[in-house]
Design brief:
Blueprint (H helix, E strand, L loop, with lengths): L13 H11 L2 H9 L4 H13 L6 H23 L11 H8 L14 H24 L1
Helix pairs in contact: 1-6, 3-4, 4-5
């Protein structure tokens, strides 16, 4: 049957999302996303990096997945920050928080990072290594 662009014809597996978050968390990718207004090339690179792990996704699928993950992360974080709210548990929260917890989710395009943000970004490199090690161990 015909399908609309953006619909889930080929849903992402749990291991695929885990891999995607690790790839997106790469410091180089984050710097490029922060500085880019035209970022099609970056999403193409994400698709190529996913292919290295055996997942076939287009740059558009990668863009839409990141948009959805960031939206879900922000919604979960905002909800859980309200006092008295029953906490929602979202399976990708900790991985996304490691990437976006120290800055606005829709940031980017600001001139540069302060020293605290730079230190956090540098610390992600080691976490990323852990992230990819966990993927290799589960494959």
């Amino acid at each position: 049957p015909p399908w609309e662009p953006g619909t889930q014809v080929n849903p992402w597996s749990i291991s695929e999302v885990q891999t995607f978050i690790c790839v997106v968390g790469d410091e180089k990718i984050q710097r490029e996303l922060d500085g880019a207004t035209r970022n099609e090339r970056i999403f193409q690179e994400l698709a190529e990096r996913m292919a290295e792990f055996g997942y076939t996704r287009t740059s558009t699928q990668c863009r839409e997945k990141l948009k959805k993950l960031k939206s879900d992360y922000k919604e979960n974080k905002d909800y859980n920050s309200k006092s008295g709210a029953d906490k929602k548990v979202w399976k990708w929260f900790h991985q996304m928080d490691a990437i976006y917890g120290h800055r606005p989710v829709n940031s980017g395009r600001e001139g540069g990072h302060d020293s605290a943000a730079t230190a956090l970004l540098e610390s992600l490199t080691e976490e990323e290594g852990e992230c990819f090690r966990s993927i290799v161990e589960t494959v």
